[in-house]
Design goal:
The structure holds two protein chains of two kinds. By secondary structure, chain A is an alpha+beta fold. Helix content of chain A is 48%, strand content 12%. Chain A is built from 24 helices and 17 strands. In chain A, the strands form four sheets. In chain A, strands 1-5-9-10-7 form a five-stranded antiparallel beta sheet, with no helix packed on it. In chain A, strands 8-11-6-2-15 form a five-stranded antiparallel beta sheet, with no helix packed on it. In chain A, strands 4-3-14-16-17 form a five-stranded antiparallel beta sheet. The longest helix of chain A is centred in the C-terminal third of the chain and has 46 residues, at 543-588. Chain B contains 13 helices and eleven strands. Chain B has helices at 11-29, 36-47, 62-73, 88-92, 126-138, 173-176, 190-197, 215-225, 232-246, 257-273, 281-292, 300-304, 309-319; strands spanning 52-55, 77-81, 93-98, 103-108, 115-119, 140-143, 146-149, 155-160, 181-183, 251-253, 297-298. Classes of the chains: A alpha+beta, B alpha/beta. The A-B interface holds A 585-586, 589, 591-593, 595-596, 599, 610-617, 632, 635-642, 683-684 and B 8, 229, 231, 233-234, 276-282, 285, 317-328. Chain A: Keywords: Membrane, Transmembrane, Transmembrane helix. Chain A: The chain crosses the membrane at residues 27-45, 52-73, 105-124, 131-151, 157-174, 186-205, 560-578.
């Protein structure tokens, strides 16, 4: 093993391990992985010095690494060595993403890098001084990184391009430096061709919905009986100046719990929670325009099990947090206490006004939960239908409903609590003067919007949390009891959950301007729906919505259709590469390769010579027999003479002979010769 | 031709040999027209240190060929007409009393020549045939306990008439094996026969054959050609051909190891005569029938079915995969 070859292999593996290190937070993991590569090569160098066999080196160093891995992780995972090593990967896949860089979570990554580097080092140090080992090892590490991060670590493929460039560089430079013979540029050329083809294919193939290995892991699910925090809104309002928590980060509403299940009497929170890293994907996909927010939260007087967060949380610095993957509600089973400090990274859907103007809402079983209104009174259904009269898009319906719920109704912390149909009917159109008529807390405003929205086919849910507050001089946003609120959200296809605020109409979500524009257009119809008669007609979905659902199904089908040309193209590409590699090997073989290339072409032209015919016999049958005979003589000399001839014009002759053979075959039969696999089955 | 060294024969020596081979061939062809392939085969046997069995009808130039070779070689040439009453001593020589000196001395027979034409060898008794064949193998004649070496080079060109077999003694297989190759001359084509018939033609006149070399040079060449390179793949191919004949149901006796060694030896000379310092598979295929066919023995059923050993060999050659000049 030369230092140049070893150095190239180490750098290649270290670069390829970079995406893998993105599976853990911080820059330390990459340094650790690079160190593991260096250690593996050092082990092999020492093994060679002590004349250990390859088998002994692999078994010894591999066993030592596994034992070390066991001792690192045994404190965190119960069971014997086999269980500890076996469960380390599922444990990593159910941790937060990126995973905290704790020793037990880092162990599987370091172990993988070390073992791969060990095998690569052995292959590089072997007799063959493999040039294929390092790129293969790099591909393994890169693929592992792509799996751990679900392709997010190298979204633009820059590291992949770097790995390919490094591999090609090594193939050219290492061999040139270590060998005096001519080095073919065929393999690097083939790799670059594959890369170019992959880049072309990437433009037409669907690049979303990457394979997610975490979906293969069934995380432990905990059924936790939790209380609905909506009634607490009144108590938080009562302690208006009390600091509940403080936050450092962008100005965003803080979410405490998402309520998606409505019984007709009350909202219910999900009771099934799993580890935060387990990405059973949410039942409704996130929007296309989303941004990531990192915040630091410090708990004050807030208590309970619900852990405040922003957006849909993807990671947290707390290790024992559980999450409801559908809603993103965080749960801390041990409960919160004053002074608890933690970081949260969340994803917030943020479509723009134009996106929403034409947005549709999905249909099917996935949203049934968000449309469910058991025993909805016909009066409420009719009220909802009148509220959205003349609207043409789901967004207009949502804006219209927001306006209808807000008009002539006042927030009142003293108003009766409750989310039942009766309370909502009382809130919306109860006789003025009665308790709770046209008055309510954020609970009634949000619930009224959500129920009316579901009644007209909008998937809705209610979020309990805290409205955004300005930043203080110390960089923290102090959130007090008065900031507690609830708001409804509507799910739009492709754009995710969008918040609305029927209480004040001035919060985040769609801009006030776009809402005003919609309201101006609908001014004559959204002013005030009449109070409907009891037992109105049953609710049906508007026909426009059914059409939009069919239209949404088409793009996904088109994605699948792309696979039909992509698969055969990939096969052809692979065959072309294999044939190209064979051609490169033949070119390196001189006259022998030139003659073999002629035999390849005879095979493709269905003129395969009988097995007992000698080279001159075959040459005599070729169309350009004079050149063929000269080539056959050169090949015979190369094969059977005791000495090697100098450079010859065998490949020039082969070109002439091959051209003659091609002329015998019609062009349409030659179309696929470049990818015909038959020559690959020949030994040479 | 350069002098003998211990190393394998090189390309420049091959070029010199090719020129010599061409000169000898051209010289022989002045007497025997239009039979260059047969001439070349005889020369292969000569340079390979073997002997030739010419099997042909009378009047095709067998004797002319043998005497022309001798003439071009410049050495001593003898002709022995084999008859049923020919004695071994008539061939090898005998001890006679010299009344002048009063001593018994050895009088060499006709085998003491560089080229011996054994005409109609199958007409002599087995005892006489054996005496000649023993000299062919041993290259010495032992009389009264004294060994007398025949000249070097020593080429026996024996002829057989395959038509008139009455009163002949068929050569046994073991003795046929002593001939390096067997061939036939055949009638000349129309143009060459016209040339032979034309009055004043030099065809058939041994006296017109120029002497282009000498026995010493031929013997030296033969020694050097034995070092010509034959790749292992070629040797394996020859072995597989031999194995194919041994496993053929139509044969009672396949190619012997001595036969395969003779094939290798001939292949060396044949390759050199084509200007190569290495052998190729086509050399083997070209020489396979002349060298091996007369050593194979057909079963009685095959004989009755009209099968020939040449056909069996052709089938064996078609069955065995030839080594191809492709990367290994």
């Amino acid at each position: 093993m030369t230092w140049l070859r070893a150095g190239w292999a180490v750098v290649l593996l270290a670069v390829a391990a970079f995406p893998l290190s993105a599976g853990w937070s911080g820059s330390g993991p990459w340094s650790l992985f690079a160190g593991a590569v260096v250690v593996a090569f050092g082990v092999v160098v020492q093994a060679r010095r002590f004349r250990l066999t390859t088998g002994m080196t692999l078994v010894g160093a591999g066993a030592a690494a596994l034992i070390g891995g066991y001792f690192v992780a045994r404190g965190a995972i119960a069971g014997g060595p086999v269980e500890v090593l076996r469960d380390s990967v599922p444990r990593l896949l159910t941790s937060a993403r990126p995973a905290p860089p704790t020793p037990d979570l880092l162990m599987p990554g370091v172990l993988l890098v070390f073992l791969v580097a060990l095998v690569v080092a052995v292959s590089v140090a072997g007799e063959g001084r493999s040039l294929i080992g390092p790129p293969v090892g790099a591909v393994v590490l890169y693929a592992a990184g792509a799996l751990v991060t679900a392709g997010r670590a190298d979204g633009r493929g820059l590291v992949a391009v770097g790995v390919v460039a490094l591999a090609a560089f090594g193939w050219v430079v290492v061999d040139r430096a270590e060998s005096t013979r001519r080095v073919s540029l065929g393999p690097p050329g083939a790799v670059l061709a594959v890369l170019a083809a992959a880049a072309l294919l990437a433009g037409v193939l669907p690049n979303r919905n990457a394979f997610e290995p975490r979906e293969l892991v069934r995380p432990p699910v905990t059924d936790i009986a939790v209380s609905n925090p909506l009634p607490q809104l009144a108590s938080w309002a009562a302690m208006a100046d009390t600091e509940l928590l403080r936050m450092r980060g962008p100005e965003l509403p803080v979410r405490l719990v998402v309520l998606a299940d409505y019984t007709g009497a009350a909202w219910q929170a999900s009771s099934l929670y799993g580890p935060i890293g387990a990405v059973a994907p949410p039942d409704l996909p996130a929007g296309r325009r989303a941004h990531q927010a990192d915040v630091e939260l410090v708990v004050g007087a807030l208590d309970g099990n619900w852990l405040p967060t922003v957006g849909r949380p993807v990671s947290t610095s707390l290790g024992d947090v559980m999450v409801d993957p559908d809603s993103g509600s965080l749960m801390l089973p041990r409960g919160m206490g004053p002074g608890l400090s933690y970081d949260v990274r969340g994803v917030v859907d943020r479509p723009n006004d134009d996106d929403l103007a034409t947005a549709k809402v999905p249909t099917g079983d996935a949203i049934r939960r968000y449309l469910d209104l058991p025993g909805l009174p016909a009066t409420l259904a009719d009220y909802a239908r009148q509220a959205v009269l003349n609207t043409s898009t789901p967004y207009e319906q949502a804006v219209a409903l927001e306006q209808v719920v807000r008009l002539d109704r006042h927030p009142d912390a003293e108003a009766p609590v409750g989310s039942s149909y009766a309370r909502i009917e009382q809130f919306l159109y109860g006789p003025l003067g009665d308790a709770g008529a046209a008055k309510g807390t954020a609970e009634q405003f949000a619930t009224a919007f959500a129920v009316l929205g579901r009644a007209v086919g909008l998937p809705t849910r209610v979020v309990v949390g805290f409205q955004p507050v300005p930043e203080g001089p110390d960089g923290y946003r102090v959130i007090r009891g008065v900031d507690a609120t609830a708001w409804p959200e509507v799910y739009f296809a492709d754009w995710g959950w969008v918040p609305f605020d029927p209480v004040s109409g001035t919060d985040s979500g769609p801009s006030a301007a776009s809402k005003r524009e919609v309201l101006n257009r609908l001014a004559s119809t959204t002013a005030q729906p009449t109070v409907p008669a009891k037992d109105g007609p049953p609710l049906v979905l508007p026909p426009e919505q059914a059409k939009s659902d069919a239209a949404q199904a088409k793009p996904q089908a088109r994605h699948w259709l792309l696979l039909f040309p992509a698969l055969p193209l990939s096969v052809l590409l692979v065959l072309a590469c294999l044939r190209g590699a064979r051609h490169s090997r033949l070119r390196r073989a001189g006259a022998l390769g030139a003659w073999a290339s002629v035999l390849d072409l005879l095979l493709l032209a269905r003129r395969q010579p009988a097995r007992h015919l000698t080279a001159p016999d075959i040459a005599a049958l070729a169309p350009d027999s004079e050149q063929a005979l000269r080539l056959a003589a050169l090949a015979d000399r190369a094969a059977f003479a005791p000495d090697q001839a100098g450079p010859d014009d065998s490949w020039r002759l082969a070109g002439q002979v091959r051209a003659g053979i091609r002329r015998l075959v019609p062009w349409y039969r030659r179309l696929f010769w470049a990818v015909d696999p038959r020559p690959l089955r020949r030994r040479w | 031709m350069t002098t003998m060294t211990g190393t394998a024969i090189g390309e420049h020596e091959i070029a010199a040999f090719q020129a010599l081979h061409k000169r000898v061939g051209d010289a022989v062809e002045t007497a025997l027209r239009g039979k260059r392939e047969v001439v070349d085969l005889v020369l292969v046997a000569m340079f390979a240190g073997g002997h030739v069995l010419l099997e042909d009808v009378p009047g095709t130039g067998k004797t002319t060929l043998a005497r022309a070779v001798a003439g071009a070689l410049g050495g001593l040439s003898r002709r022995v007409q084999f008859t049923p009453d020919l004695l071994p001593s008539d061939v090898t020589g005998t001890s006679v009393y010299d009344p002048k000196s009063g001593q018994v001395g050895f009088r060499p027979g006709p085998v003491f020549a560089n080229v011996v034409l054994a005409d109609e060898i199958n007409r002599a008794a087995a005892k006489t045939q054996s005496a000649l064949l023993e000299v062919m193998e041993e290259r010495t004649v032992t009389v009264d306990g004294v060994a007398h070496a025949v000249p070097d080079p020593f080429l026996v060109v024996a002829t057989q008439n395959p038509i008139d077999l009455d009163g002949t003694y068929r050569l046994p297989e073991a003795q046929l094996d002593r001939f390096m190759l067997r061939t036939s001359i055949g009638y000349p084509d129309l143009d060459h026969e016209l040339d032979v018939l034309r009055p004043g033609s030099g065809a058939g006149r041994i006296g017109t054959v120029p002497t282009v070399t000498n026995p010493h040079q031929v013997a030296e060449c033969a020694r050097r050609l034995a070092t010509l390179h034959v790749a292992d793949r070629i040797l394996r191919y020859i072995t597989e051909l031999g194995t194919a004949t041994r496993s053929d149901d139509r044969l009672r006796l396949g190619a012997s190891t001595r036969g395969l060694r003779a094939l290798v030896r001939c292949v060396q000379v044949y390759a050199a005569s084509h200007g190569r310092h290495f052998a190729v598979p086509s050399d083997v295929q070209r020489l396979c029938a002349p060298v091996l066919a007369h050593r194979l023995v057909l079963t009685r059923e095959a004989q009755l079915a009209g099968v020939t050993t040449a056909e069996v060999l052709a089938d064996a050659t078609a069955r065995v995969e030839v080594p191809r000049p492709t990367p290994q």
